[in-house]
Here is the input.
Amino acid sequence: MKDRKRMRLVVVGHGPTAHRLIETLAGRGFDGTVTVFGEEPRPAYDRVALTSYLSGKSVEDLTYPVPDGVTLRTGVRVTAIDRANRTVTTDAGDSEPYDVLVLATGSAPFVPPVPGRDLPGCFVYRTIDDLDAIRDASRDARAGVVIGGGLLGLEAADALRGLGLDTHVIEMSGWLMPRQVDEGGGSVLRGHIEGLGLTIHTGAGVRSIEAGPDGRVTSLVKPDGEAIDAQVVVFSAGIRPRDELARACGLEVGERGGIVVDAGMRTSDEHIYAIGECALAGGMVYGLVGPCNTQAEVAAERILDGPAAFTGADMSTKLKLLGVDVAQFGAMSGALDVTYMDPVGGVYKRLFISDDAKTLLGGICVGDAAPYNALRPFVGKPLPGAPSDLLFAGAGKASVDLPDDAQVCSCNNVTKGKICAAIADKGLTDVQGIKDCTRAGTTCGSCVPMLKQILVKSGVDVGKALCEHFTHSRAELFDIVNVRGITTFSQLIAEHGTGRGCDICKPAVASILASLGRGHILDGEQAALQDTNDQFLANIQKNGTYSVVPRIPGGEITPDKLIVIGEVARDFGLYTKITGAQRIDLLGARVEQLPAIWRRLVDAGFESGHAYGKALRTVKSCVGSTWCRYGVQDSVGLAIALELRYRGLRSPHKLKSAVSGCARECAEARSKDFGIIATEQGWNLYVGGNGGFTPRHADLLASDLSTDDLVRTIDRFLMFYIRTADRLQRTAAWLENLDGGLDYLREVIMEDSLGICAELDAQMERHVSTYVDEWRATIEDPDKLRRFVSFVNAPGVPDPSISFETERDQIKPMPISLEVTRR
Amino acid sequence: MTILDATPALAGHWTPVCSYTDLLPEQGAAVLVGDRQVAVFRTFDGALYALGNLDPFSGAYVMSRGIVGTRNGEPTVASPMHKQVFSLVTGVCADGSGVAVPTYPIRVTDGTVEVSVV
Ligand code: SRM
Ligand SMILES: Cc1cc2nc3c(=O)[nH]c(=O)nc-3n(C[C@H](O)[C@H](O)[C@H](O)COP(=O)(O)OP(=O)(O)OC[C@H]3O[C@@H](n4cnc5c(N)ncnc54)[C@H](O)[C@@H]3O)c2cc1C
Ligand code: SF4
Ligand code: FES
Here is the structure.
């Protein structure tokens, strides 16, 4: 038996696969020494999420934690392996002995040998450094070309588009993503992508890349002589396993590259393993994280003398690319097939079936991936329904009777059986529990809807319970509080819940109490329920300071008031910015400064803008008929009236509104929870709109309303929403989930089908008549003010950790360095 | 009030930080001990806990402003920045990452709250 105490494990490469290996070993109590060499200047990060780095994720967001006890040497490349003496040498000039060596060197993008490929302006798309370089080069560029129209190429193309470049994609094959979709799917996909403004050249190659007088790329010439303007060129024409170290030391490699390994991930040298994208397992190089992770786990178990084996992996893929669902599972051909194609709606679905029409072989989906979740587990099994029905199988239908051995999470290779066992054995009650116990759902997240369904199927009530403290839904709690006249959280949890609450149920109950007009949100016990933003009536920022947003109803403001805002910002040294909702944000205030800032603002006639609350934010307006030559109604006047009516109204999520003076819609009312557009006869009311994460246009609820009818309808709409929505469910999602939809909503609030309109009206009336400005009420109450200090034992001392630097003549938080302790 | 004295003193060096009544039920407050920032919490049952005020995930000194509650009966605070939940008893983050904030002994003597941060 090996003496594990002294085993020296050396890992070459620190990518996602190496990370999974050392994490698995750490989790299983491996007690040898672990030394990892990574050529990149930083620890391993989530390469799958690489593109999010361009849309705001930081390096820290993407970086994996390094387990304790691991010696990680970043920025060091291993240059040779001495198998006889069992050492590796590095470009840092030293060497490291090993008992077991694991190669996790991944792969490198393939750059075809076209003239000009080395010019400045040519890039690959694989590392954070690559993305930094692409971003820099894009600053002075007009246009870009991506060579390769596969999954990664299209992702890169979307990134270039996001950087503001006019983007082209060149694909050798006759259609896009030839590895995942067939010609029909490719053409539907192309329609989507061209709709986004990208130019696609299929069946095309590259003759040369040309440089301008400054030596940088200016264009790319196709074989037919057509020149495409481009200052940035990204190669994404496939990957090549990085097997150079293995080759040089005589390990067996495949004909087309890849380090040959057995089922235990061992190479032709028994002391050396290879895992991830550099390994050739069963004749295949796997280019997806799922199989790479499985390989890492197999190697970890073998290193610990276990019996695990890698026996191949499902290469099914499901992704959302440029907003389009694309999915492929199982085989890409079969004796029989059923196809649904809707080029106008941009949907293509095709299932492959055995010649006896009994067995599902595989499928391709573009534009609607619902059949993927539902049907992938049935590959190789009897068809779960009539083929034409299956094409329309939503996530809810066919998946219900999944067999136990069906793989639910492909990223982490977790079957339905494993998940059900975990639910039963550990008494799991939520998706988080499944994630913690099985890893399912922790990588790309596309299986999470299935995890929820499996919970439901296992008899766990997931949809409803707010959290571990209440078995009720938010709507049920609202009714309880309303009907029983409950006024405190303590009473509610004592009578209807367990424990002492948490960051989920406390703010939700606080919001219900506030919606029902049960006192100032910082009164007595209520203060302890609030999120920090509500506690301090301001929005917390990354360095622990807060931002202050005074209400500017309808976006209308006098010069004098503008001057006051400027003076307050100047006197308190705050950063100012015009927000996306027609008002002004003052950022960088420490808690002890807030009351003094409010005092100045309140004295000048301002009040809280509730930027911090799940409450009405703003009612935006366009300039309207008073000034605009097209306006048909006074949109500013209405917006101000509505903003004042609903200010301070607490709701399940934030509420936004806008009023436009005519159909040109300059106020973007249809992206709001309730939006109003003027007509010659009155007002059209739209509801359920949303910007943000999942944009949705609002639906027309009623047309040509008089101002009185409009206000009454909005009152009821809001109160009905507040009563029945889930926690943090905006009106858009609420309306989409409302049984009976818009028609039902009309019946309830316009025809009073439930007989509740009088009560809804009364509730809104009470809100309007009892409204008080939360800032004023706070500065006038010494008890509430006590909280506004950085330190209770040193009230005059500002938090010493907060400091600023200057950028564009204003303050900006100093970057924070992190020290994390683990136990 | 024995529960208030439940935490054993470690090195015995206690610093008075505020009066017990300065702390509101189920809320935290930050105190400065030398140059160390400590978040002290008073839970519903009147017990006191002290943690480091630094949120290890965001690097901001804000733990005292988190929502206090329970998880499976154990008293907790959720970071106000990104909502990771920490045990008030052990300082360990409930997300399984092994991240923890320091905990400090805390007690009440004659109505004065004292912490020990050697
Ligand atoms: C300040 C502001 C950005 C700016 O400088 O322009 C902003 C800042 C924040 N937004 Fe926003 N949003 C701001 C306008 C918007 C808009 C545009 C608008 O309102 O017209 C949108 C899209 C419209 C919409 O909401 O439908 C917007 C969509 C979001 C979302 C996504 C909501 C969704 O339904 O998907 C969030 C996240 C959330 O609320 O859960 C968010 C959350 C936030 C938070 C609270 C994030 C956070 O937790 O720190 C930011 C803090 C506010 C603060 O003051 O520190 N913000 N945010 C804007 C304040 C407007 C105001 O005057 O009140
Ligand atoms: C933009 C992008 C999007 C992707 N999206 C998806 C997706 O949606 N789904 C999916 O399943 N997969 C996706 N992938 C693929 C996935 O990222 C890879 O399968 C995964 O990264 C492979 O991990 P690895 O650790 O084996 O290799 P790598 O991530 O390549 O890591 C290997 C590391 O080893 C280092 N190294 C190499 N040689 C040496 C040496 N001699 N000395 C020291 N260090 C060395 C390299 O610098 C590298 O950091 C995507 C990839 C990219 C680039
Ligand atoms: S929406 Fe109509 S009225 Fe309002 S500013 Fe635009 S064009 Fe003018
Ligand atoms: S399938 Fe990607 S996380 Fe489960």
